[in-house]
Design a protein that fits this description.
The protein folds into 2 domains: about 15-215; about 240-300, no CATH class. By secondary structure, it is of the alpha/beta class. It is built from 9 helices and 8 strands. About 50% of the residues lie in helices and about 10% in strands. Strand 2 and strand 3 form a beta hairpin. It starts with 13 loop residues before the first helix and ends with a helix. The longest helix is centred in the last third of the chain and has 61 residues, at about 215-275. The strands form 2 sheets. The protein has a 6-stranded mixed sheet with strand order 1-4-5-6-8-7. A two-stranded antiparallel sheet has the order 2-3.
């Protein structure tokens, strides 16, 4: 495999750096770095959350940029993009540019992590904060052409809501024109880069991202992240190829055994049929062996 880029940013040629710089200038809110730098600001995140939950939020606090949470020693750390909280709810906002086919399970884990992390030691269960996990997806996770999919726990039979304080929402940027709320529609349009649908908030976020693109350190971070993602993809492909070879070999051995058994069974049926040619008619031989009537007739003609 020919690698397009070196692994180190300092080893980039002028043309390679120019290519990455163009990508940086063209990047939008779905780009990880720009999303996190923009949406950690209360002036952007607060009106968006108010629109999502259709309520006035008096005060909201940013917890920690890309916070990594661990339930216990040895457990897998969960890296969260954006986490805000008010007096009753912890909000986690995630940007998802590609479908990793694990978002329902991930959202469930994020709820559990947020609940434990935000609960006070020795506190009562009913005192724990509500949790809301929000994914802004640049694809339609459930393929129903809806701009948003909202989930809570409820009883299927009686439609009684559990009331555990959890909510998960998956936005579909592709259906942004169907979204009625102007702030949400504008943000989804921002993901799709359709400036004709931007509202005031989307224009402000877009303007701020253009300012971010003028910061040299962020440009270098973007290039480094791009190279890491590029080589992670290459490494994943190589690992997948190795696994594929091993699986293929194992499947080949199993298939060979199965074919051998099938051929052995076929040969036995032919030998039995030959012995019956002078005793039974073709239909009876076919019934007593695994051969078809045509195979029996062909066998008789050959003998």
């Amino acid at each position: 495999m020919i690698n397009k880029f070196p692994r180190n940013v300092n080893q980039l040629s002028d043309n390679q750096r120019e290519d990455l710089y163009k990508k940086w200038l063209d990047a939008g809110i779905t780009q990880h770095l720009l999303f996190n730098k923009s949406m950690r600001l209360v002036k952007f995140c607060k009106p968006l959350l108010e629109s999502i939950f259709d309520k006035k939020i008096e005060k909201i606090d940013f917890i920690e940029y890309e916070k990594v949470l661990h339930i216990d020693i040895g457990t897998k750390g969960i890296r969260l993009d954006i986490v805000f909280e008010d007096d009753r709810t912890v909000y986690n906002i995630e940007m998802q540019a590609t479908n990793t086919h694990n978002l329902p399970k991930r959202s469930d884990m994020y709820h559990a992590i947020l609940t434990v992390a935000s609960s006070s030691t020795g506190g009562k269960y009913n005192e724990s904060k509500n949790t809301a996990v929000i994914f802004f997806c640049d694809f339609d996770l459930f393929e129903l052409d809806e701009p948003r999919y909202e989930f809570e726990y409820y009883c299927k039979k009686s439609n009684i809501h559990l009331g555990d304080g959890t909510k998960r929402i998956f936005f579909n940027a592709k259906a942004y024109k169907k979204e009625e709320n102007p702030h949400i529609r504008g943000f989804l349009a921002l993901m799709r880069k359709d400036k004709s649908e931007y509202d005031t908030l989307a224009h402000e976020i877009d303007s701020y991202m253009q300012q971010l693109k003028g910061i040299k350190d962020l440009e270098d971070n973007f290039m480094e992240m791009t190279l890491n993602e590029y080589y992670q993809h290459i490494d994943d492909l190589a690992e997948g190829e190795k696994k594929g070879i091993v699986i293929g070999e194992k499947q080949g051995i199993k298939k060979g055994i199965a074919i051998g058994r099938e051929e052995a069974t076929k040969e036995t049926s032919i030998n039995i049929a030959k012995q019956l040619l002078d005793i039974l008619d073709d239909e009876s031989i076919a019934q007593r062996t695994s051969l078809s009537l045509a195979e029996v007739k062909k066998l008789r003609e050959a003998n």
